[in-house]
Amino acid sequence: MDNTTPLPVGLTKDEIKRRVTEMVRTVFRKTIETASSQQIYNALAYTIKDYLSDRWIATHDQYESQDVKVVYYLSMEFLMGRFLGNAVLNLSLDETIREAMEELGVDYNLAEDAEADPGLGSGGLGRLAACFLDSLSTLGYPAYGCGIRYHYGIFEQHIENGYQIEKPDNWLKFGDPWSVRRDEYAMEVRFGGKVNSVKDEQGVYHFVLEDYHSVLAIPYDYPVVGYNTNVVNTLRLWDAEAIDRFDLQSFNEGNYERAVEEQNLARRLSEVLYPADNTVAGKELRLRQQYFFISATIQRVLMRFTEKHKEDFSVLPDYVQFQLNDTHPSLAVAELMRILMDTYYVSWDQAWEITRKTCAYTNHTIMSEALEKWPIELFSRLLPRIYMIVEEINRRFCANLIDWFGNDPNKIRNMAIVADGQVRMAYLAIVGSHSVNGVAAIHSNILKTQELRDFYDIYPEKFNNKTNGITQRRWLAKCNPGLSRLITQNIGDGWISNLDELTKLKPLAGDAGFQTDFMRVKRENKVLLSNYIKQTSDLSVDPDSIFDIQVKRLHEYKRQLLNIFHIIDLYNTIKMNPYMEIVPRTFIFAAKASASYHRAKLIIKLINSVADLVNNDKTVNGRIRVLFMENYRVTLAEQLCPAADVSEQISTAGKEASGTGNMKFMLNGAVTVGTLDGANVEMLEEAGEDNIFIFGMTAAEVLALTQSGTYSPWNLYNMDYNIRFVLTSLINGTLAPGEHDLFREIYDAMLNGYGGARPDEYYVLQDFQSYKNAQFKINNAYKDTARWAEMAINNVATSGKFSSDRTIRQYAEEIWRIKPIQVKL
Fold first, then answer.
1. Which of 109, 250, 371, 456 is 20 to 30 Å from the Cα of 53, by its Cα?
2. In terms of DSSP bridges, do strands 213-225 and 180-181 run parallel, antiparallel, or are they unpaired?
3. Which of 328, 474, 552, 559 is flagged as catalytic?
4. Short-list 574, 582, 683, CA closest to 620
């Protein structure tokens, strides 16, 4: 910006007081004394957004003036968490705002808590995207996050009689102060119809879509504030509206439903994150959602590109990079081809070369069911032109396979993008991208040697690893102020922007004084969580007990069952040995199960049934407590991570791609009990085997046992009394008096298989004894306070690798080839 541009008004304490007071008066017609916490929050949010607007404008002016390459991070999920606290932290305004609110007689914590926690993601995938956006802004990389502005989040989880109940997550109920609606960038997105070929004046045929129906995609922009920088990037979420919102003629004729039909059809697109897909209608809506935000984004990006570079698309990869966050955005490959060919008349060969150089794909799963496939009937009916393009990509790819491997039907069938009546989205992303990355070293290796080996054999140069990371700004500086202050007092605050600085804590791990301070902070966090638990569930938990926490999406491969089976076994042991001495332990679970995932929801009921049994048995005498905290979300995670002593990362080896919850707990001084799975492998390398509890089979051993076909959980049942006792409790009424068969499905899944799956598919019983041994070691280790403190501190000190700043630098340098910018005001 030139020197004549006015500087933004400094947000002093008095200026904050003035702006908030004025905002409350003019917007809500209230005084500070009569305004609600919700209204105070909204006034604060508008004040902060107004303050950062100059930086936001300057950032995008810099994009334009320097004509920089921009990465567009395409994701169905952005689990951002609350905006206010994160923005305040990154703008270094926390102390100033707290003082201003105190002088106004306002409880800032109540105002901050009034903000809705947007549930625009179901777990790690969406939270990773949010961490990446934070790092992109902090490091100064030009970027947009692109997704959907769902009117309702994943769902609000309530627990009634032990069962999960889903209720709408209406995060927009009290407004959306952080967004800016950008009608000038609205895009039309087309569905259905039929494809015709039309000859132009030069006699060249082009494809056009006719008789389609369409919706209008309206972008809402949200600021993503960098830490200690002027860079403010943009999260662009698309909302859907009807092109003709209201049919007045139909309304006047008395046909009221038809009058709003288009509006209702459009609204469904952006209504709910991940509608249940166990019906044809649900599947169709999911596919519509994916195409909706991809088409809108790519149309707008190419329009912006042509404003600077006319139609010289040969240089598009020098200025644009699309990063596909999992398989959901894979349609970007075909949509970019469509627009280049049908709108700008680029030839197939040139369009394909441009597309492959412009797209990159991140694989987030080893689970085959998560590698999306769409029925041809649905895909071709809903997206006829896209389907034609996908079929042609597939035809050319299969022809190449014949050239490379000969006419091998099995090889072609296994690798084809379109096969067995389905369109395989992961394969489309691999073939149509220049980079394919996994998200942890072990995950990337499994992709190359097992799951995607055929593709690695022909595209070895595409495959690479980018181990996930988390932003230390939210996951330590914001959520754990006590530990943050302690760290800064001892090594300075450089760790906030360079997490490797935490290695300076290593010499303090054995220092008695620092250990005392560290454990004092940990206990203060446990007291805060204990008070919250008492307030929300009326359950008293002992802050001097071991806080053993497993929080993540509820899925069988994450093995919440292994955890609860161990608790049942521990309870049985205490019942048989009433005077048994153990360190008291509080087992905490939190997780949402997909609304259509019956087994996962039954496991939630099991956890709550075990909690009812254990917590109400006086003979246990408080030695163990069990609770399931409802409605797991970012804000709850921010309370749990600082308070955890033990972090449960116990998925079946070879099933978890990476994990990021494991990193958040490590950063906050929890000690991990885990398998050699995902990023646990690299956490072991960083922290050392003396500071982590590893158990269970390795990924290689899991694969070998699966391939051998010799595994029999009945053998374990027959030979191990403890396993037999645990499983029998599922069906003898112990956990469900009067409902002996309530948990029989879980019993059968363990021993006989259920619904076509192998018995004990995720090897819960096979790893049970090893897990018990690890838990016994934890109990003994915690008795030695100095040793435990040293372990916990070492975990913090060695967590530097797991910053999303490191991950983003690797993406930027090795995949995207983008450079940071400096924004001057």
1. 109
2. antiparallel
3. 552
4. 574
Q: Within a domain: residue 674?
A: yes
Same domain, 317 and 444: yes
Q: Are residues 197 and 288 in the same domain?
A: yes
Using alpha carbons only, what angle is made at residue 778 by residues 772 and 784, rounded to the nearest 5 degrees? Answer: 150
- Determine whether 558 is an active site residue: yes
Specify if 111 maps to a domain.
no
Tens of pLDDT, residues 117-168: 998 998 889 999 999 999 999 999 999 999 999 999 999 999 999 999 999 9
Same domain, 293 and 360: yes
Catalytic position from the list 473, 558, 559, 625: 558
Q: Is 316 among the domain residues? A: yes
For range 446-465, the mean pLDDT = 96
Is 409 within the bounds of a domain? yes
| Residue 338 pLDDT level (bands cut at 50, 70, 90) | very high
Task: Give pLDDT, residue 799.
Answer: 98
- Catalytic one of 664, 672, 734, 798: 664
Q: Which of 127, 356, 364, 555 is catalytic?
A: 364
Is residue 635 exposed (0-12), middle (13-18) or buried (19+ Cβ within 10 Å)? middle
Residue pair 262/243 in contact (Cβ under 8 Å)? The answer is: yes
pTM score > 0.70 for this model?
Answer: yes
Q: What is the pLDDT of residue 200?
A: 83
- Residue 715's beta-bridge partner residues? none
Residue 503 among the catalytic residues: no
If asked whether residues 319 and 409 sit together in one domain, one would say yes
The total domain count for the chain is: 2
- pLDDT for 245 equals 58
Annotated catalytic residue within 660, 675, 734, 798: 660
State yes or no: is 598 an active-site residue: no
Q: Is 526 a catalytic residue?
A: no
Are both 404 and 312 inside the same structural domain?
A: yes
Catalytic, out of 553, 559, 601, 655: 553
Active-site residue, 623 included:
no
SS (H, E, C) 68-118: CCEEEEECCCCCCCCHHHHHHHHCCCHHHHHHHHHHCCCCHHHHHHCCCCC
Q: What is the pLDDT of residues 690-745, one digit of tens each?
A: 999 999 999 999 999 999 999 999 999 999 999 999 999 999 999 999 898 999 99
Domain of 677: which CATH number?
A: 3.40.50.2000
Q: Same domain for 354 and 476? A: no
Domain holding 342, by residue range, is 67-82+117-467+810-816
Residues 361 and 269 in one domain: yes
- Amino acid present at 307: E
- Any catalytic annotation for residue 552? yes
Tokens coding 419? 């096969």
CA 316 to CA 334: how far, in whole Å? 16
Are 194 and 343 contained in the same domain? yes
